[in-house]
Amino acid sequence: MVICGDPSGQYGYLGVRLSDDAVLKTMARTTPTHEFVAQHKSVTYAISPSKLRVTAGGALIKQKPMIDYRRRRT
Fold first, then answer.
1. Where are the domains of the chain?
2. What's the pTM?
């Protein structure tokens, strides 16, 4: 997954499922705890330096440790 920002401060989420190469592109936002959150239909993707957490309707679907998290250096 990749979170990209544009000059206006908007963020986008790009995720690719490795099992079948399915692609998801949607808008993302930041939280006060410096996570990124993207939503598609009822599924929420929360990305932090330590983990990816996927929920649907409040139920945890998947949680994985973050292997590599890079921030743009300014």
1. 2-65
2. 0.85
CA–CA distance, 64 with 52 (Å, rounded to integer): 5
Handedness of CA 8, 71, 26, 47 (dihedral sign): negative
Q: Consecutive 10-residue runs of the chain (74 residues): their mean pLDDT?
A: 90 93 95 92 94 94 91 65
- Whole-number pLDDT of residue 34: 83
Q: Do the Cβ atoms of 48 and 34 come closer than 8 Å?
A: yes
Give the pLDDT score at 69: 85
Query: 27 - beta bridge partners?
Result: 12
If you compute the radius of gyration of the chain from its CA atoms, what whole number of angstroms results?
Answer: 12
Helix/strand/coil (H, E, C) string of 9-26? CCEEEEEEECCCCEEEEE
